[in-house]
Design a protein that fits this description.
Elements (H helix, E strand, L loop, with lengths): L1 E3 L8 H11 L5 E7 L2 H4 L9 E5 L2 E5 L4 E3 H4 L4 E8 L11 E8 L2
Parallel strand pairs: 1-2
Antiparallel strand pairs: 2-7, 3-4, 4-5, 6-7
């Protein structure tokens, strides 16, 4: 399953990730990528209501009132690996990206 620059745009990323968890095949892979803390950078304008922050191998999704750990969500279903990539060398003045791989248990 592939999700590029979309998770911060959904109304409820927790619910969206639960659906991904539900429909992803055993042994399958969920790949998430996007800009780190997009809502903050966009001043919570229009669809940018959620921030995604890779932290110690986890992805923390947060908004102005709540936060949750993707690693905790998938603890019984798969292995989460989240990284932050500095893109300033690739694209001038670009914000960092997050890359998340969730390997579902067989």
């Amino acid at each position: 399953m592939y999700c590029k620059n979309a998770l911060d745009h959904v109304e409820d990323p927790h619910k969206t990730l639960l659906e991904m968890k539900k429909v992803c095949a055993k042994g399958g892979l969920i790949y998430l990528t996007g800009r780190v803390n997009e809502a903050v950078h966009q001043d919570y304008c229009q669809l940018h209501q959620w921030n995604m922050l890779p932290c110690d191998g986890d992805l923390v999704a947060w908004d102005r009132s709540t936060a949750f750990s993707v690693q905790k969500m998938f603890s019984n279903a798969g292995k989460v690996s989240a990284t932050r990539v500095d893109t300033k060398n690739l694209i001038s003045n670009a914000d960092p990206l997050y890359h998340v791989y969730i390997e579902m248990k067989s």
